[in-house]
Structure formats: structure tokens, C-alpha cells
Amino acid sequence: MLEDMPDRPYHHGDLRSVLLSSAERTLAERGPGALSLRELAREAGVSHAAPGRHFKDKQALLDALALDGFQRLRASLEHAKETRDRSETDTRAYLLGLARAYVGFALSNAALLDLMYARKHDSDVSDQLAAAVGDMIAIVLNTISEGQRTGEIIEGDPMTIAFAVASTLHGFASFSANETVEDVEENLDAVVRLLMTGLEPR
Amino acid sequence: MLEDMPDRPYHHGDLRSVLLSSAERTLAERGPGALSLRELAREAGVSHAAPGRHFKDKQALLDALALDGFQRLRASLEHAKETRDRSETDTRAYLLGLARAYVGFALSNAALLDLMYARKHDSDVSDQLAAAVGDMIAIVLNTISEGQRTGEIIEGDPMTIAFAVASTLHGFASFSANETVEDVEENLDAVVRLLMTGLEPR
DNA sequence: ACATCATTGTTGTCATTGACAACTTCAAAC
DNA sequence: GTTTGAAGTTGTCAATGACAACAATGATGT
Would the Cβ of A8 be found within 7 angstroms of any atom in strand C? Predict the structure, then answer.
């Protein structure tokens, strides 16, 4: 009889990351309400209590997902920055790149983005998440400061300006992900143009 | 013996709205995860299945909360519009009023706002919610069109401009509600100013 | 008046879930 | 080699959402 050949070794070896990616798939496909630790365990071929070794809580799993999301979003924004650096130093083009990256992430990871900004994380994790948001704003801040140095951006407290710009990006991404907006690209261009030139006639 | 005096009549009479307001309080105080139909029933002094008569689903309750939230938000924005009409017709002041109303709502009803924009509603309700968002954008749209008529706003597709402005308001409100931003008022002023005048030096 | 009947509430039950406790397997460190 | 601790397992519990079957109430039509 061959039944004593364990399909998988006793120790899964990679359970934590398997749980995370499985959770993210479920989140994207069936929403946050469909997330169940026990179901994740079943999918991973592991007992119902195994996830408890890696995540104290269901909330801990969600926290980890959110943090991971911020890391990837940040990487995406920084990638947009780096690819820009090789071309010219046009602040508007740079902002457009950032906006595209942010919106792209929002469209591809709508449910995850919700989770990232959900107001229900453990207090210490909330600090980390706040820091992650701070990092993102810092990227915008860099652009603003650079733009101010080259004279492409008006003077004024760069932090305030960065906050305003980040707000716009976030709001646009959030809206675009929610409603079924067809011409995201065009709208996005218009938003960046508007941000740069303002609403008042010159 | 007095025990046959029913504390409450068999028919609660107002259960639906009691459930809704109780749910909203719980939502605000303990987050969406703490919402339990059974607990709401207990608080209302009613059996555990009674809520089922008014809400097919837990999701149906959440949908109702979200719709109600949009109605109140819209009323608040329209109130801002009416109080403005009595003073001058300065588009910037009007936008500032709208922004204050939106942010005020976001700060007072953070968890509810999350729910309103959550991507997990029943499909037909989603349509109603999308319509609600459309109504809100329409309010902004009015302002933009008026501003264009008085020459205070640049020309261009008003819908696109309105979408951009609404995005900014929403993003700012969402950010302000999440992070612990101290000087919301100042930042808000700066955002509206920035929207009006743009980022480029003139 | 009064029978009917839809509404709203009730009890009972079920499968699922998150959390925890107690036990086992394995591998690495000493 | 043994000890020790991380990772996985079974077993159990209370809470929950959903549903079915039944009861009370009040409105409607004649």
C-alpha cells in the first residue's frame, strides 16, 4: 500500500505566502466578505487551524495584505519615477506618469485598494500603514520640490501642495475604480492638465 | 401577576429605522466588522430573525445604510449650495463651501463613507449608488457650468472638469478622514486655491 | 361585524466560521 | 543525541447568517 506516501511533507514550507496570494485572489474575485481563513486553509491543503500559526487573527491577514499592497503600489510609483528620469525633466509628464501608475494600480487591484485604506486595522499596523501613505506622498513631494527648483511649479509650502496633488490622484483613482468610467485615459490627462494650469482663465 | 403585560407591543412598529440607526452607530463606533444582525436585533429588543423581515440579507442592510448616507451627503452639499446662493456668486467661495461640506461629512461619518464607496453591493443597488454618485457630480457640474457662464472658469467640457474637481474633493476628504491630518481647514483652503489657480506659475 | 390575509414577529435549526487549547511532527541548535 | 521551538493537527466552543415553520396583529373587503 502506498498510502503512507504523504502527498505533501508535514511542513508546508511556504504556507504564509501561499495564504497571502490565495487571499488576494479571493479578495479580487469574490470580495472581502468571501474571505475565510478556513477556506484558505482548505485551498492550501492544510488543516483549518494552520493559518493561525502565521496570522494571529483574520485581521492580521488583512493587515498583511494591505501592507503588501502598499509596498507594491509604492514600487510601481517609484518605477514610474525611474523610467521618467531617463527622459526629460518635464514636471507635467512626470505627474502624468505618477497618475497613470496610481490609477493603473487602482484599476487592477480595486478591492485591495479598499482594504489598504480601510479604517479598521490594528493600531500598530495602522501606524505602518500611515507611514506607507506618508512614503507615497513623499514621492509626490519630491516631484513638487523638483518642479519648484526648475521653476515649473509655483512657490509655496511643498508639503501642502503635495498633499493636494496626492489627494487628487487618489480621488481620481478611487472614482475611476468604482464607477464604470470608460475613457479613463482622457479624463486622466484632463485632470493633470487641470491641476497644472488651474481652473481660472489666464 | 403582571407578567402578561407585554413590555412592548408584538409589533415593534418602527423596527426598520431602529435597526438602521443602531447599525450606523455600531458602524461608527466599532467598525463594519462588528455589525451583527443578531446583535442589532438584541439591541432592538427583538428576536434574532426579526431583522430578516426588513432586510433580506446582511448585505441589504449595508446597502440601505449606504444609500441613506448618499442621501444625507447630497442634502448637505445642496444645503451648501443654497446658503451660498444668498451671498455673492464667487465660484471659488462656492467650491470652498462644497469642499467643506464634503470633508465635514467625511470626518463625521468616516466608516459610513467607506461603506458608501465599497465595491460589494448588490448589482441593482450598485446602480442606485452609481446614480447617487452621479447626482453628486451633477452638483459640482452645476457650479462649473455657472462659473463658465460668468467667465470665472476656463472653457472646456464641463463634465470632464467637474469629474476632475469631484475627484479632488473626494480624494482630499478620503485622505483627511484616514490620516490624522491636523490642519484640515488650511489644507482645504490650499487645495481649492490650487485647483483654481493651478500649479504652474503665471 | 367579521373572515381573510399580508405583514411582522417568533422559535428552532443548520452549516460555517473564528478562536482557542492540547497534542504531534519535524528540524535545527546545542 | 537530546532538547526545544516552530509549524501543523484534531477537537471543541460560541457566535453568526440564513432559512423554515409557525403565531400574532392589524388592515381590507364585503
Answer: no
Number of domains in chain B: 2
Measured distance CA(B122)–CA(B120) in Å, rounded: 7
Give residue-wise pLDDT tens across range A135-163.
Answer: 999 999 999 999 999 999 999 999 999 99
pLDDT tens per residue across span A41-93? 999 999 999 999 999 999 999 999 999 999 999 999 999 988 876 666 689 99
H helices of chain B, in order, are: 15-30, 37-43, 51-54, 58-85, 91-108, 110-117, 123-149, 158-178, 184-197
For A90, which DSSP code? -
Listed as ranges, the nucleotides of chain D within 7 A of a protein C-beta are 6-12, 15-21, 24-26
Determine contact: B161 vs chain A, CB below 8 A. yes
Rounded Cα distance between A185 and A100, Å, is 8
Measure the CA–CA gap between B38 and B169, rounded to whole angstroms: 37
Taking the C1' atom of every nucleotide in all shown strands and the CA of A41, the nearest one is D8
Output the pTM of the full model.
Answer: 0.91
Whether A177 has its CB under 8 Å from any CB of chain B: the answer is yes
Q: What is the CATH number of the domain that holds B134?
A: 1.10.357.10
Q: How far apart are CA B159 and CA B112, in angstroms?
A: 27
Q: Closest-CA residue in chain A for B95?
A: A199
Per the domain annotation, does A60 fall within a domain? no
| Tens-place pLDDT, residues B2-22 | 444 445 665 667 999 999 999
Residues B46 and B142 in one domain: no
* Residues B82, B135 within the same domain: yes
Q: Are residues A193 and A100 in the same domain?
A: yes
Q: Give yes or no: residues A50 and A70 share one domain.
A: no
**Counting every residue, how long is chain A?**
202
| Same domain membership, residue A99 and residue A184 | yes
Is A7 in the same domain as A102?
no
Q: Are residues B74 and B42 in the same domain?
A: no
Q: Which residue of chain A has the CA closest to B199?
A: A196
Both B88 and B35 in one domain: the answer is no
Q: Which of A167, A179, A180 to mutate to test the interface with B (most CBs of B within 10 A)?
A: A167
Residue with cell string 461640506: B101
Domain span holding position B24? 13-55
